[in-house]
Amino acid sequence: MTVASSARAQSPAAEAPKPDAGKPDAGKPGAKGLPASLAWKDPNAFIVHSNQTVETKRGHTGSGVITPVGRLFIRNNVNPPPDSIVADRDAWRVEIAGVASPRTLTLAELKRIGLASVATVLQCSGNGRKYMQDALQPGQTIPGTPWTVGAAGCVIWSGVPLKAVVDMLGGPAGGVKFVTGTGGEDLPAGLKPKDVIVERSVPISTLDTVLLAWEMNGEPLPLAHGGPLRMIVPGYSGVNNIKYVKTVALTEAETDAKIQAASYRMHGVGEKAAPTQPAIWEQPVRSWITGPLDGGAAGRTVVTGVAFGGMHAVARVEVSTDGGRSWTDAPLVGPDLGRYAWRHFALALDLPAGRHVLASRATDAAGHVQPEDTAPNGGGYSYNGWRGPAVRIETT
Amino acid sequence: MTVASSARAQSPAAEAPKPDAGKPDAGKPGAKGLPASLAWKDPNAFIVHSNQTVETKRGHTGSGVITPVGRLFIRNNVNPPPDSIVADRDAWRVEIAGVASPRTLTLAELKRIGLASVATVLQCSGNGRKYMQDALQPGQTIPGTPWTVGAAGCVIWSGVPLKAVVDMLGGPAGGVKFVTGTGGEDLPAGLKPKDVIVERSVPISTLDTVLLAWEMNGEPLPLAHGGPLRMIVPGYSGVNNIKYVKTVALTEAETDAKIQAASYRMHGVGEKAAPTQPAIWEQPVRSWITGPLDGGAAGRTVVTGVAFGGMHAVARVEVSTDGGRSWTDAPLVGPDLGRYAWRHFALALDLPAGRHVLASRATDAAGHVQPEDTAPNGGGYSYNGWRGPAVRIETT
Q1: Which CDD domains does this one have (chains A, B) (predicted)?
Q2: CATH architecture for segment(s) A286-395
Q3: Do A334 and B219 touch (CB under 8 A)?
């Protein structure tokens, strides 16, 4: 008998879905099956938190660098627009503002400006929140989906560099400090638009890397992942990558939309979010084990996992089989898809019979090392400890 | 009105399917739809030559480096084994011979030896045969499927390096000069096994790069592409990448199976194949245009395509819009997945109204330049000219 679980959660049941109550995107609380809109995905690959909140099971991202779209997580703040917006993809319109010659362009027009591809880790800002929720003191709460490691994948995006579009429209207007993207969701009736609109600002420094993407992994971008057009901000957490993007504006100030001003901020547990707090933008260095998740027979085993540096390449990964008492460097395997992609690692070793706690610890090219743990914050954002996602197994 | 076609074939109809008569794999000649076994693939992405011979339409490989499995070509020399062989993938057995300690290993056992990934161009040896067939003199024939550019894709494979398996089994036996893989097809009754078995030998120098792969693009390898286990020889043409591999032997001599001895050899048109002729192994440098395939409006356009060097990285790609009279260097775009992968290129330029012949010409890191054309050979193998796949468009 073997046990696969996080080092804190003692059984797989502890990773079972919880309702995501109180969110505009909450579907059937506790639903176990994929919603109809995601029926095209691999039904065995997911933990379903809600209709719009679907986590890839650990070990289901594959070993080939790129996460198959059919196994990639889903997280929406607002329900997606209707299918009709992908019926004629090339007709999709995006307004480009904050440039010398503002203009609305169709996707067909964007395709005639330029083409680039970039591989990025797409990760929900709250991936790993469960490890913070598990560490709270009595009376404390962190709202939000209890993601473990599966709100993340590595994707190749193809589209046009925003910089090429801005250059064609005469360059940035004076004084701009942010790139502000607005999603094309239909906003729920009865709510103030600014309270629900998906509109995010990121620093203007990203202008050199932002992509307006129409393909994911070589296929037309599915509606569920933001098709026909998504604004990709390499290295930045998921919420900054605006789905069905309808406006891209270079702006002097951050948007005052609630999702920017009063959400996705770094603040203490129990405190309110405020625009003065750091925004959830760049992702920190992180890694986790993807196998083995079951103990099986003692003997030679390959310990595998993924590691990424957010804004920086991965420089080193270490693996521990004794819960962090000792560490061994693990070889990176497979092609290197660039600084924003993840790397797989694989360490062949002999595991004697008994209990083992498998953990991984990554270091990025700028020297950032994954900490043992990440102190809980009010939103449960940016967890990057190595302790939380450690895996307990027993070999016989 | 615009016209998209090869520079030789004056209309799209010239690229329509032809029967693949006389081959053991021939399905319904002239069938237009995907066979039931491939119903999971994108029905709009293919030219169906036969039930086991399916070509990706030009421009349907996507722009994201990796070809989606649902759009990847199919070519089988013998009908695939039954679905039952992928019901319990880990139970698949492969015999490893020609080593100090020969042994049969299950896929589950292979997974505990090591893990690596490699991106390779998977390409039928006869990709581009149509351009040779079109250039024949009266009375000459080249048998085989009239592939244009679509018997190729770029795939990430994950599995165990053959070298790690061989090392674990005590290293190569003395005197070995080849790696010989045998496919697990059920052989048709009434034929001599050696006449139909898919068994290929490649030089022992490949021992450092061969992968025994169980994943394609991060997903369990589909039966149609050789699952549960395929022997991948990076840089070598498709036939050398043995599907459902059941034996991998390090051997002193090349196999005398017909597919090695009397097929896939470089010989003159009308001559018989013989073991003394060069085997079809390493792929030459090649590229082709993927867009635009329709003319549309004159003005700014992005000319795109793919380029690969076979055994070498791509060093340079040039694009012509005037059928090869003048050339402009085209930027490579997207992540570099290593020497065996293809690169996308994208050149933004202004196309005035009128007729244009778009061509691309690649140079590999060893200095090999794509020739204008490739002289026909008896098997229609290894076409790599830039003239054949050139695209004629008219802008207005």
Answers
A1: SO_family_Moco_dimer (cd02110)
A2: Sandwich (2.60)
A3: no
